[in-house]
């Protein structure tokens, strides 16, 4: 089927697709020419700073800003008391400046704009806030108990009213059919994105009250919509908002929502009449930029003697923190592996998001999938063991297959799960290495992820404008966002391929809500698929126009003509040969001539999840398998990753080097999540908010990662491609946990898998 | 005919067209927020400076840059000897850095890039150039003589080989038919644009060799093409050039070409690897930015006893200066009034452009038309007097009429010359005031100008991309350029009108060759007509899409639907009523939905002039009449302008306030040209290159100007409009000269009409 996308003749051999094209933004990045938000300076720009809460939970008795206001160089001091109320977040429960009460250490109590960052910092210290401390609650299970302090009194409960429940088939029936059942609880920690570019923005009003926000956001169109609320609050309804995206120094989901600091910057710009920049320090980035939500998952799965899964039953509690950002919506994605990773006929899933006085979470690469997959895939090994089946065989028995429809009504198109399992088995020398139990072990874990967008909003579309100039160069205005993942390069490859041009002929423009058509943002691993199809279909339209003109001009049937390598050729007439730039000039410089410009809006053929949380919410699904070989020191619990294999079905690798970058980058992030990352909170306060105390993978820590690219040519994807941004992180932790089990016979059910936990587990094992 | 464009029903009454909309850029300009090239700062930016020639004509014996190179903070010193040759200008006779020889004081001998402007200036002084002075020639007639110094030895002659000759009918036959003939010589001076924003640019290479130039150019696409030459010279053929237009602080034609300073800045950026900014000082702007070319015109015209013109015979000599920019092509526009101002059956025109060691000229508002019209319209009064016919009557007899085809084959569509003549007659109280001869007098002069573009290039087109967002706002990406004339506002009005939106809903984006479609530049008074039609047709396409969607959604016939005041209505069904933003969201957020984006490329239906210099090179023609009342002091020759009336047939005033702005601004510039402006050169050297010694009109100098807008609704123009940028300048000088004649009986045939010249003429009159 999709194999027909493969080139059939010399003329159809790809020149850009499948090439190892270095990232187009690499040159400027290594030369320091990339303009991050930190580098942007506007004339007369002021600097903003936020005063954070001193308590996890307290009443605000009074705020005295008079000393700060008197400091020379201070241009505005704002609080919740002298500004209109603006609320942000998924359910708008987060006032951007807090009044009456603080609910977390991240609460914004006041803010200052001043001539320099130093003056702003000084001014913040001069603000006197009198608090009356309140009892706090820092554990979601405690927060659910009768009599627990209420984070939002008006809500009447700490448990959010969210529709996170899914039933497929009949779990009780599945339990009955099972010969083996395992029930366990898994625990996932609070981790954070650690973007090297800290959060920040610049807000500026023009003389007519229109707002421009410079921001390294992943969602410039949804942010544009959110920022309208600030205008409404300021009595500027109907004025325009423009979001200009600066280079993103890492996103990973942290920049997928709008946050109080952005609205505060807008308010400061409004009240000073000058551009205001507010950028987080590294310390602020650690405690004030939301991370991945902590999860407790109670999971049980069962199988028949033959190893066929009969049910999966999952209950989760998520620590929602004090307010509600995207973290609270991750159960919508956790449903995906729970319902559709392996063929499982009977499924139940319930999740509760519970307010605490901890800092709140947001989206992070994988968006809940790593947490759910850790529980599922760790437990699968236990269940396989119980059933006496090799874990690899067990996965083969239950694997997903091309064309199936899963219990959640996902329409699986291409599916390379089998190929991925086989590749990892071979690369890991599974049969030789498994089950030795001598302190060395191998483990694997599979994953499913959306690979064709994810309809989380009414539109999952992306727009493209293609403009060809007189020099054979293309402006590709795309609403996609490149946060380092390489979209710019991939989109240039797609357009260059389709138009017979070279990658360097394409200028990819992705920066300004006023220039590019709408897009749902960089998330759900959707850019290659959605923006890629949008660019591809635009390029096809442009090609059609070019060939039509050429056919008329050269009196050669259009069907015979093709574009390749900056040239127009005819299949039948060797005398037809013309450079594309010359052809474009001929199209322009004639009577009724024109430059060729086309636009395209591509919204994938998908559905929003219905009330039962079912529907085909992605146009394609990406599958992958992680394999790990570990060596664990039984005395110290030190884990050494000897090898990591990541096999991913990417549909088509438009740029194998970029795919490898994602596999290795996701692998590295997954290793960090598995082995060392955890933001430690004590009564809501971050204890290790710096790179000395919060450990992430560094170059010396990195094991060899072997990337295996499996190509299944998805027929809906651009040149067959599927999304691959998030998956390479997802299966890391269970693969490691499974390898540790293979090495030592201990099961670690709580991330990160630290030496302390291994030692404790070994001691527990001895004890039992 | 075109009157059918008038609104017929309430629903069709205009909401934006015809409104006095303040210029959209006014707010930012008065608040100092507009970013001129002077305001743009890039990280690590260096500052460039040029070493100008010390002589009008000399051999370069040697250039020693060693001392300059050793000055700390100097990053590059370039000359014609250490850089590849790049030539610029209309016939590429101007090497951007001079070698072997200098030919004018404006010659660029060396240039420096340094950390600060001060260091660059210091470094320039450290460059030792040894010259060997050559004899110069500073008068074009002397330059034509045998044995005159040759400016370009390789050309063999100082007279340029240009095709400036036009014959219509038979001038000798016309002479025979004439009862009265007048033959005279007129002389026009060197004047300059006096842009308040001096010339300048910033050049920057990215890490891959692609070039970005920030420039307040009027021709960003032709500049983009020109700058490719720099890349070719540097071995970077095939790399991309992007021109980003910064706010233009006045253009008037001075920024219609590319000049050596821009290529020098590019070279400095290339050799330093850093962005380089080069901005002229005011003194440099006066001598180094080319102005309007000096002209000597020998003209004879004849008429019958009844006052019908029988022929017009014009010979011109233009001082071309040392190199060739657009000044040398102004005869192509001078042909227009010579052939087509009034009905003249027999015409001959010959022009010679002659090299001298003076500084060269370029385009300037009117582009030759003011010089030619001064001669024609001054002489017309003399001829009318000779024939004993009132000059106003004389003009009515010979006036142009709608629908006529002129001898140069211009297809006149709308023509309000009669209405303009009548309006000026009335406003000036012509019958009461004419012919009193008591030191007060009235004078008039007509004009023709292109009003529908001018096909001076293979394409006279302009592109538009229109993008409508979810908030009912429009991004209008237009390749037009606003240099103060108000195009931004006019285009927003056109789009707002067509889409039933408000002007403030439209964001006009005109800045970057990579974003907007091609355009021929801001010249020939073409923006309202060409960019206006482009925007209008784009808006019509968008409207069509909106109404089609609305018709389907509301099940209401499309023909019944219309957009007005941010609402959709039905003509027949009062229950149909919906805000446009809601409608756009409905179009977006549906299955297979999309945001509405359209593009348009409009190239007017015109012809390039043929070998005989004939053809309909504009799609519409603008007519106008200047009327002036003067009072002249017979003792001192001081002229006081009591009143100036400017009546212009603009087709349709899309923005009457903006039209008045053009009429008053053009009138002011015309008054300066008529009464005071002249760049004095002594052996090629500018003597009065500053605002103390070079006089332009200031507020206290301004007489009352009465603007009369005549609307003829040209059927090809957007909503009936024609171009009006240049015409209000054109007839000023002859109207004043004619009024002076009426006041004193002396004829001043040389601009500016200074008190000295009047006193001298009065003395000559007494003497004769």
Report on the structure:
- Chain A has a seven-stranded mixed β-sheet, with helices on both faces.
- In chain A, 28% of the residues lie in helices and 24% in strands.
- With 768 residues, chain A is an alpha+beta fold.
- The termini of chain A are far apart.
- In chain A, helix 9 (331-340) packs parallel to helix 10, helix 10 packs parallel to helix 19 (732-744) and helix 14 (487-499) runs parallel beside helix 15 (527-554).
- The interface between A and B is large, with 47 and 47 residues.
Write the topology of this structure.
2 copies of one chain form a homodimer.
Chain A: H1 26-30, E1 46-52, E2 58-64, H2 66-70, E3 74-79, E4 87-88, E5 94-95, E6 101-102, E7 108-114, H3 117-125, E8 128-133, H4 140-143, E9 165-168, H5 171-177, E10 180-188, E11 200-205, E12 211-215, H6 220-233, E13 241-245, H7 260-272, E14 276-279, H8 282-288, E15 295-303, E16 309-321, H9 331-340, E17 346-355, H10 369-387, H11 391-398, H12 417-427, H13 430-433, E18 440-450, E19 462-468, E20 474-478, H14 487-499, E21 506-509, H15 527-554, E22 561-564, E23 567-570, E24 577-579, H16 580-588, E25 597-602, E26 621-632, E27 639-649, H17 656-675, E28 681-682, E29 685-686, E30 705-710, H18 727-730, H19 732-744, H20 755-767
